[in-house]
Amino acid sequence: MPNVTLKKIADELGISIATASKALKGYPDISDATKKRVLDLAEKLNYRPNSFAQSLRSSESQIIGLIIPEITHDFFAKVIHGVITCAKSNGYAVIVLQSGDSYEKEKEQLGMLLDKNVDGVLISLSNNTKDIGHIKEIKSKGIPLVLYDRIYKLLDCSKVVINDKKAAYNATTHLIHTGCKKIAHIGGNLDPQTTIDRFLGYKAAIDDSDIEYDKSLVYIAKNLSFDDGYQIAEQMMKDHKDLDGIFALTDTIATGVLMKLKEMEVQIPEQISLIGFSNWFLTSVTTPKISTVNQPGFEMGCKAFDLLFKEIQAKKHGMLFEKEIVELPTELILRNSTKPL
User: Fold this and answer.
1) Which superfamily does 164-295 belong to?
2) What is the pLDDT of residue 165?
3) Rounded to an integer, what distance in angstroms lies between the CA atom of residue 247 and that of residue 184?
4) pTM of the model
5) Fewer CB within 10 Å, N side or C side of the chain?
6) What is d(CA 104, CA 33) in angstroms, rounded to the nearest whole number?
């Protein structure tokens, strides 16, 4: 069955297309009786507005692009949910793309979003993004842009972040306060700001205690994966038989560590205390449940969309837009993988 057009509604009711359009949009200069006739017929014929044609007339697509590094991560799933929820309430659709932590794919996807004439872009940078020329190109074209989670500090745009350094400091300090004396950190390549800041938070907590910093206790998880944590755990136990604490960059890594240590019959937290980062749902169902830092993904997604929407509206109305950096609070979630204070 062919799509019902606005012209068909107008012809059947003997009114102009302009009048039918105004009636559907609730214009005050159209009588209530005409509005009712138009709305009743539109419902009867299952009329749907042509959003593409509307976007051509208004120069707006009512679509935004969202690029995430990995869709399987619980944190980013929450971000997607937050963005889509807030976008829908404002009449926007969302194109979700996954970079797979690939710089080249990230560039390709930004180009794809430009081709789709999106009204704005939300992006969390891949772990392998060092050159941000493709991000600057978006800005140079005047397209509203918000960075979230993994950001580039020197880029002049709105950002939604947490204080990774402070959160990591608090996590490591908790391990120290529970009596840990030899604490390892499993981090990542020092490229994304989040990875850098979590390492700096860990190191600052060690430096502020009576424990001497030992760089041999810092391990790099190249893929930030479960397998990385699983393999590194075995290596750590070989390197440091008196290890008693571990702060992992992510919950995915921490879960891998937990599985390996259990296989090695290491008692957690009696022998080694373990804390992750993000509050991934798996951390609450492992045995023991894993202590972690709660990273507010849903709220981050909502706030990122809110900032983007503000910038889109400012651009639409020719108004000056002040860039904002929003820092969301984190919370230490204490479970059974760490000893009580």
Assistant:
1) Response regulator (3.40.50.2300)
2) 97
3) 6
4) 0.80
5) N
6) 57
